[in-house]
Amino acid sequence: MSATLPLKTNPPPNFFSTYSVVLHVPLRDAYETLGTAAGHERVCRLSKLCSGLELLEKDKVTLPVQNYPEGMTLGDVGVRTASAMAESPDSVKVVTRQHFKLEETVPLLFGTFKTKVLLDGTLTWDDSVLSSSSSTGTDDPVEALYESVSNGGIVVWKLRTFQRVPNEGEGATDQTRVTERIEGWAPALLRFIVQSEATKAHRTHMDSYHTLF
């Protein structure tokens, strides 16, 4: 088993964004929709920039420590370019990775022109969150990881963290807090505008998550 996995971004990140929303659905429902391939296309198409999405192959990746999630988690590494596992021994903890291609149509000069941006990406998650009978009641956070690189060289590493928010009302359903942390890299000439646009687009996108349920 490999001792290391790829870095989140290489070169190191130079733009960032963090945002949270609370969804009025149980953790299992939020995780399945936002954290796995089951809802990935719907999540991507919430963005007005998304003009096309193709889901490709699905594979599995080994994290470099066997005591995951007590040790290294998806929040510590990048897995988009990691080698896929040929087999999944029972003694090794693996995560599932969905490859995809995404097309964005980006307006320029106040919409006078439009340009297409192509992204290669992966969404990675832990299937045991859905299979565990205790996953809906745990107070421990669980994670999914979105990663992409554009044809312009912009790299995005986006960690989605899900945590149960107990609802004490009689007969009320638990809620889920979803927090996303973006660490990305853009060429120096684009960094300022990418930082500004990423922050605005990130908040707008997440504020629409409730419409998926």
Q: How would you portray this structure in words?
A:
The chain has helices at residues 27-35, 37-45, 128-131, 191-206, and strands at residues 15-23, 50-62, 94-108, 113-125, 142-150, 155-165, 175-185. It is of the alpha+beta class and 213 residues long. It has a 7-stranded antiparallel beta sheet with strand order 1-7-6-5-4-3-2, covered by helices on one side. It starts with 14 loop residues before the first strand and ends in a 7-residue tail after the last helix.
**What is the chain-wise order of helices and strands?**
EHHEEEHEEEH
The share of residues in helices is 10-25%
DSSP helical segment count: 4
Net shape = globular
Head-to-tail CA distance between termini: 39 Å
Report strand %. 35-45%
The average pLDDT score comes to: 87
> Regions with pLDDT < 50 over 5+ consecutive residues?
none
Radius of gyration: 18 Å
**Main pleated-sheet profile:** 7 strands, antiparallel
Give the class from helix and strand content and strand pairing.
Answer: alpha+beta
Counting DSSP E segments of at least 2 residues, the number of strands comes to 7
Strand order in the sheet with the most strands: 1-7-6-5-4-3-2
Distinctive features:
seven-stranded antiparallel beta sheet, 7 strands, 213 residues, alpha+beta, globular, 38% strand
Write the topology of this structure.
Blueprint: E1 15-23, H1 27-35, H2 37-45, E2 50-62, E3 94-108, E4 113-125, H3 128-131, E5 142-150, E6 155-165, E7 175-185, H4 191-206
Antiparallel strand pairs: 1-7, 2-3, 3-4, 4-5, 5-6, 6-7
